[in-house]
């Protein structure tokens, strides 16, 4: 069992420069504590994600950590010129000595897509083309490509990643039907769905890999809101305060447009309701250990990626939670 961290880097109600500095201090704590990887979301024009350019934040992280792997979860491929993204991926992998984990996706918010003057109806096709280009550009010395959206003729690829032919790939999966492609192509996956919904996704993923004779080298895990304190009461007090702020951030852009996110039911108004869905826990190390064990039994995950900082959680609260999780929860699963 490996443990990572998922982070929206959502607005915490503090000055933005201070917010970034606090998260880099947390990244240092993840590095010291033995977490496998840090996965950073990409969002635009919404307080749910202040790392609108993940590469900028991750470049700083490369200089503040030495063992922690890291990457976007996910780069929104239609939002990038493919050549620029190829170059950024190579730079991050080189700057970190080969620690980049490469999450890729289309982007699920039609409002963020519209802000970039993109047609949401076309971004799925754009994503597939851009993905082909990304992998080809990372592995070749000269890029030639003829597609509907992108065309390149003998473009020299000067930069190279450390990890060849490319860094490990990641993909977000929400339904079993979407598990086939990552299973077939050795792509690691994360699902944020409740445990009962995650299990059929991972069963499909594993069955496809078994049918193809694939090994068990990939990671497949779930993300959960987690707060750890010395007592259940102390952890719950923090979680009940900070989760509504995170939820407000998550819904903000959709409500601004008189809409609601497709996954609105997964994020009810209170932390207690969220915990009742099986996607969050706040408690003592023993309470959290029991929760993690039950979640792994249900989902069959071999990777677990808690949100350990969200909403208006203070740096001190987050560092304390990370320390307890690393010292008193993670060792039980090694």
Describe this structure in words.
By secondary structure, this protein is of the alpha/beta class. The chain has eleven helices and 13 strands. The strands form three sheets. Strands 1, 5, 6, 9, 10, 11, 12 and 13 form an eight-stranded parallel β-sheet that branches. A three-stranded parallel β-sheet has the order 2-3-4, with helices on one face. A two-stranded antiparallel sheet has the order 7-8. Helix 6 (180-184) links the parallel strand 9 and strand 10 (188-191). The termini are close together. The mean pLDDT is 97.
| CATH C-level label of the largest domain | Alpha Beta
How many distinct folded domains?
Answer: 2
CATH homolog superfamily of the largest domain: Luciferase-like domain
| Name given to the CATH architecture of the largest domain | Alpha-Beta Barrel
Which structural class do the helices and strands define? alpha/beta
The main sheet comes to: 8 strands, parallel
Number of helical stretches of at least 4 residues: 11
Return the CATH topology of the largest domain.
TIM Barrel
Q: How many strand units?
A: 13
Report the sheet-strand fraction: 15-25%
Helicity range: 40-55%
**Series of secondary-structure elements, N-terminal to C-terminal:** EEHEHEEHEHHEEEHEHEHHEHEH
Distance between the termini: 6 Å
Radius of gyration: 19 Å
Mean pLDDT value: 97
User: Runs with pLDDT <50, length 5+?
Assistant: none
Q: Assign an overall shape.
A: globular
